[in-house]
Write a structure and sequence with these properties.
It holds the Pfam family adh_short. The protein is of the alpha/beta class. It has seven helices and seven strands.
Length: about 250
């Protein structure tokens, strides 16, 4: 039985990935991580184990690793993250995402929190899980583990033609750099950066124009995850498998 670990599993894309993989054949073991409990629809599934985890907390990740011990993980899907909007402005400018992340309103608190969760949280999670991802014992290089990090086109410097989005853009650029380094430093694990599209996930409190459902995004993303190999390590791909230069 393969083991899949999913962060941000209680909502949005993480939940959609959980629903997809928990019903796939053969049934894998799912390790579901989030800072809030899973919805009832999936919490009682026999192949799902839930862990109340803050990925930006080293103590929280340490407890997770103690629980996992040396168990091998075949696939990690890291979906946990935040949008980096200034909360005070969100209340004033409801429905206007751009207005909540301009240079005029951006705060140090918002910027640092976004980096802590999106960038430091990603680094901490990967580092903590490396013993469970690397081949050992019966787990040979023929069963190479994959780590899929949900990034964003907004983390592409060359694609930035609109400006704004200071906290989120910067945190995703840094996240991409972190994952690229892991792809170089840990070649026995495949690290993928995946842009799932503009998805209605709850990162903002209202639906953005052109946003697709998590289920539609996951349907495309799963195909990329299954086919991408070492040649895609540290490369940012969209949900159709096309390269996004960053």
């Amino acid at each position: 039985m393969s083991t899949i670990l999913i962060t941000g599993a209680a909502s949005g894309l993480g939940l959609a990935f959980l629903e997809h993989y928990s019903s796939s054949t053969p049934r894998p073991r799912i390790l579901a991580l989030d800072i809030t409990p899973l919805p009832n629809s999936v919490s009682s599934l026999p192949n799902v184990s839930f862990y109340l985890i803050d990925v930006s907390s080293e103590a929280s990740l340490g407890q997770l690793c103690s629980n996992l011990k040396e168990g091998h993980i075949d696939l990690v899907i890291h979906s946990a993250g935040i949008r980096g909007l200034v909360p005070e402005v969100v209340q004033e400018k409801r429905g206007d995402v751009a207005a909540t992340e301009t240079y005029e309103v951006m705060t140090k608190t918002t910027m640092m929190k976004t980096f802590e969760i999106n960038t430091w949280g990603t680094f901490s999670l990967i580092r903590a899980l490396l013993p469970n991802l690397r081949p050992s014992g019966v787990h040979t290089k023929s069963t190479t583990s994959k780590v899929v990090i949900l990034s964003s086109r907004m983390g592409s410097i060359s694609s930035n033609v609109d400006g704004g989005g200071y906290a989120y853009r910067a945190s995703k650029v840094a996240l991409n750099a972190v994952v690229k380094s892991f792809a170089i430093d840990v070649p026995d694990v495949v690290f993928l950066l995946l842009h799932p599209g503009r998805v209605e996930t709850g990162l903002v409190e209202w639906k953005e124009e052109g946003a697709i459902s998590p289920e539609d995004s996951v349907r495309d993303c799963v195909n990329v995850i299954e086919t991408a190999g070492r040649e895609s390590g540290g490369v940012l791909l969209d949900r159709w498998g096309d390269v996004i230069e960053w």
